[in-house]
Structure to design on (275 residues):
């Protein structure tokens, strides 16, 4: 059995690949640049682009399981090629599909659900890896500056997302399921900063930005108004699904979800001063 992982060099895709390799599966990784993939030994890398389904046909040869992302192209725009991708997968003999889904309407999701293959939607809340956005400020200034520092998040370890996707691709009993994935605890920004400080062995300051200051920073970074408004809304009024712990990871994998403290210990060097 060969499993094709799209988005294989991304935050979650790498974890799906790693878990499938750990399970002894034959893995084919799709990327736009195989030379830069840096994936585990034994993983076959192939070049294709989900925005151009014609390039996908060779990568699907002999594939029985497929992990799909819902975006593509240089700016991570939502894919509009879902029906073509699903038709090619069905023709190739794919039997199981997992879809990494961020919530909201998705053409890929709709096409998969309308197809004839067993599908599972994997819907993580905030990635623990998002904390890496603070790494530069912590390394160089020992500080984090964020708005809404008491906002709540049930953030999930990316390795747990990969483990759930791998289970759905290789085990029975997951067809037609939508899996919301969280970590084992709900954390504020304050909690996350304290956890990172403990992991790296050095204090980290926390400055709370006003909404106006946050908007100025985000616009200065090149974000458009739609993105800025989205961030203000999701940070200021986090949806219940993003701050409510569920036990999906443990139910699917048979072990508890990883904590943010575990993630922080694994990535502590990213937050330590260099030199």
């Amino acid at each position: 059995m060969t499993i094709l992982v799209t988005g294989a060099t991304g935050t979650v895709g790498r974890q799906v690949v790693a878990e499938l390799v750990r399970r002894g599966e034959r893995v084919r990784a799709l990327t736009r640049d195989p030379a830069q993939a840096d994936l585990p030994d034994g993983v076959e890398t192939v070049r294709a682009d989900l925005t151009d389904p014609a390039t996908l046909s060779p990568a699907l040869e002999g594939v029985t399981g497929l992990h799909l992302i819902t975006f593509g192209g240089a700016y991570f725009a939502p894919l509009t090629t879902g029906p073509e991708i699903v038709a090619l997968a069905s023709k190739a003999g794919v039997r199981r599909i997992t879809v990494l889904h961020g919530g909201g309407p998705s053409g890929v999701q709709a096409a998969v659900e309308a197809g004839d293959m067993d599908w599972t939607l994997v819907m993580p809340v905030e990635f623990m890896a998002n904390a890496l956005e603070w790494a530069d400020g912590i390394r160089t200034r020992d500080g984090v500056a964020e708005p809404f520092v008491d906002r709540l998040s049930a953030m999930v370890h990316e390795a747990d997302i990969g483990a759930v996707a791998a289970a759905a691709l290789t085990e029975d009993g997951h067809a037609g399921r939508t899996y919301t994935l969280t970590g084992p605890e709900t954390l504020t920004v304050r909690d996350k900063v304290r956890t990172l400080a403990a992991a790296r062995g050095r204090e980290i300051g926390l400055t709370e930005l006003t909404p106006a200051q946050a908007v100025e920073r985000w616009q200065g970074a090149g974000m458009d108004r739609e993105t800025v408004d989205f961030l203000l809304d999701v940070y200021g009024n986090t949806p219940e699904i993003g701050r409510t712990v569920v036990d999906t990871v443990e139910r699917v994998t048979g072990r508890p979800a990883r904590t943010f403290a575990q993630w922080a210990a694994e990535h502590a060097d990213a937050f330590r001063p260099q030199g």
